[in-house]
Amino acid sequence: MTQTIANGARRIIALLMATSPFVFVAYPGAVAENNRGAQLAAMCASCHRLDGRDEGIPTIIGLDPKKLIETMEAFRSGKRVSQIMNVVARSLSTEEIAALAEYLAVQQRGSERP
Amino acid sequence: MNCWTRRQFGYLAGAACLTGLAPRVARSQAKSRVVVIGGGIGGATVARYLAAGAGMIEVTLVEPKLRYATCFFSSLYLAGMRSFESLTHGYETLAQRYGINVIHDAAATIDPVAKTVALKGGSKLPYDRLVLAPGIAFKFGAIEGYDQAATEIMPHAWIAGPQTELLRRQLESMEDGGLFLIVAPPNPFRCPPGPYERASLVAYYFKQFKPKSKILILDAKDSFFEQELFQDAWARHYPGMIEWLPRQFTGGIKSVDVKRLSVETVGETFKAAVVNFIPPQMAGELTQQAGLADQSGWCPIEPTSFESKLQPGIHIIGDAINSGEMPKSAFLANSQAKVCAFAIAAALTGSDRFAPHLFNTCFTFLAADDAVSDAIAFEPTEGTIKISEILISQVGEDAERRRQVVQAANGWYAAFTHDVFG
After folding, report:
1. pLDDT attached to residue A111
2. Quick check: B86 contacting A, CB < 8 Å?
């Protein structure tokens, strides 16, 4: 039953995407997801504002995911030195960093969760 | 319904909105109810993250105060470096933007069988899950002469608010050459570097305005967090101004005399111009009455969900928990709140859960342009929570690096309070 409803929902979305891409693009800001990237990003939000504002700690949204992954790798190896980021990067798996980079990359200014 | 993932629901709700079906979906599903007691850092964060998203959970936040003052950064206010207003935060955004039902009342009793919370104002709130973020309470009576009434003469200023403002007034009216005495509590207590940061920042204030004054710390302990960093800073910035006496030197704190403004240790009595007495602590209001605290005075919890080990269906976060190797800090209350919110969302709505991550960073000011920090990652292991990674500032770092920490600290305060209160 559940699966059927979910599949039905996906079909509706597919239809909407085909007919009304602009409406769909606006959607992620309206209803937040709770996926792995979102849950990991919640942890980043303790220091980095996820609405794109920078009040002394750099923004991390809307970045090229490859660049963010490279940066996190540099923090993990110690090539880049930052007390906090070294600890955070060493605590995340490669898969977690990838999920996080993917999530943060598509966040837009002002579209903060939820 | 219960086994949908939140994302699936989100897609459906989003799609339904666009096709005009939303009201039917909303009406046909009874939302799960979560009541959060306590609107401090942990409580406000958990409410926000539960309310975020697809709106499948109805969140009620119970907090008597209209505005919350942060304990962290409050010693900057004591030193005249920040306004009290800059430390206070309201609940309007949580109510208006996140749809949280904010009730300014205090919880009176919890009925874990009926799953209801009775408020002092008379109403009763039913819940599917309850979250307590009660912070700390003081063990009045643990030290002879220090009771609730004594706080008006010798403020603890360890729950920010009128107590902090009282201490500031006392410091301002103190004559140059006076002695400011801080009594530092036994472990575990809220904010391990806090009493020593307070000594540093009040010394910073004295150095400018009352340079003949002295600060004496009577400690219930024989050592403290980041001790080397503090003692190095005191020698560099305030030579001869701050004295720290460990328990092994004084024999421990015996009693206080509020009329004489004196503190008696086993070996000696110390009379001061201003006394900041930070009492021994335990888990905050309701936890003892509701059977959530054990004989340690703190609440034992499951390390991946923060559900009580003593009362299923009730979660506890923040300073009130028996937290393994986690210090009692606002940063961790926020970190725990997110892990707790995702665990509750998974239990109530079937949303996905992933390996929890818990981090702490404490920014500690030693002077206006000198701050240090620590960064710690924690992992739930063997039924408790242990440190997995740790980096702490070191003695001998150059002044530029310390200035950068000051800058990061100020940026962090803005981002962090935005994360908590919106």
Report:
1. 65
2. no
The pair of structure tokens assigned to B379 is: 């992992």
Residues of B in contact with A35 (CB under 8 A): 7, 352
d(CA B321, CA B311): 13
Instruction: Look up residue B277 and give its two tokens.
Output: 């007495």
Indicate if the pLDDT at residue B137 is higher than 60.
yes
Residue B26 with chain A: CB contacts under 8 Å: none
User: Quick check: bond before B211 cis, omega within 30?
Assistant: no
Residue among B187, B194, B143, B152 nearest B170 (CA): B152
Nearest to A13 among B5, B15, B414 (CB): B15
Both tokens assigned to A37: 């990237």
**Chain B CB contacts of A2 below 8 Å:** 1, 3-4
- Which stretches within B253-313 are classed as H helix? none
Q: Is beta strand B57-62 parallel, antiparallel or unpaired with respect to B101-103?
A: parallel
Nearest-Cα distance to chain B for A64, in Å, is 22
Instruction: Indicate the Cα dihedral angle B331, B333, B339, B343, nearest 10°.
Output: -170
Q: Which residue has the tokens 């939000």?
A: A45
Cβ atoms of B370 and B237 within 8 Å: the answer is yes
- CB hemisphere CA count around B239 (13 angstroms): 1
In the predicted structure, residue B127 carries a pLDDT above the cut 80: yes
A78 in contact with B, Cβ within 8 Å: no
Query: A40 to chain B, minimum CA–CA distance in Å?
Result: 8
Is A3 a residue whose pLDDT tops 70? no
If pLDDT is split at 50, 70 and 90, which confidence band does B341 have?
very high
Quote the CA–CA distance of A64 and A85 in Å, as a whole number: 18
Contact status, residue B352 vs residue A36, Cβ threshold 8 Å = yes
DSSP E strands, B63-120: 67-69, 88-90, 101-103, 107-111, 116-119
Q: Which of B399, B412, B366, B403 is nearest to B75 (CA)?
A: B366
What is the maximum span of chain B, computed from C-alpha positions, in angstroms?
Answer: 78
Chain A residue with the nearest C-alpha to that of B331 = A46
The pLDDT, as a whole number, for residue B145 is 98
Residue carrying structure tokens 């003081």 = B138
Chain B hits for A44, CB-CB cut-off 8 Å, are none
* ipTM of predicted complex: 0.88
